[in-house]
Design brief:
Layout (H helix, E strand, L loop, with lengths): L3 E3 L2 H36 L4 H28 L7 H5 L2 E5 L7 H16 L3 H4 L10 H6 L1 E6 L2
Antiparallel strand pairs: 1-3, 2-3
Helix pairs in contact: 1-2, 2-4
């Protein structure tokens, strides 16, 4: 843990933006695959096209949420302890004792981000003002984001 310091809001934001680009591209490809699959189902079954077009946004949203959860929870509980965006910025996510997160804790941290968002984003901005630069979801999950100092 030497040379590790709490990651600033700016570094966390940059990491989030990198992850957002990655997840947008992945979700775009998945949405394209879903559209092709649903068109095929309509052609091979009695499902009408307007039913498929009504279902597609809901399925796309659910798949997107599933991919996002698995991306963050898996990456942050891995030996990297970081998503691709966090890794690119030299950040790691640990519990408050500096230990690697379990998949369960990383999942809890991910789902708690929705609480940070429901506070009109105040939960996210808390990372700029708390002593350990923790956002609301970090406080809930008892985690911190660290940055290696050179």
């Amino acid at each position: 843990m030497e040379n590790m310091h709490y990651a600033s809001f700016a570094w966390r934001l940059l990491a989030f933006l990198i992850d957002a680009v990655i997840l947008t591209l992945v979700n775009y490809v998945l949405d394209l695959v879903l559209a092709i699959a649903m068109t095929s189902v309509c052609l091979m079954s009695s499902m009408e096209d307007h039913t498929a077009q009504t279902l597609r946004p809901y399925l796309s949203y659910c798949f997107g949420m599933l991919v996002e959860w698995l991306y963050f929870a898996t990456m942050e509980s891995s030996p990297w302890q970081a998503s691709f965006g966090k890794k690119a910025c030299g950040l790691t996510v640990t519990d408050t004792d500096g230990k690697r997160l379990s998949f369960g804790r990383a999942s809890g941290r991910y789902w708690a981000t929705y609480i940070s968002t429901l506070t009109c984003m105040a939960g996210w901005f808390m990372a700029a003002f708390t002593a350990r630069n923790q956002a609301l979801h970090d406080i809930i999950a008892k985690t911190v984001v660290l940055r290696k100092q050179n």
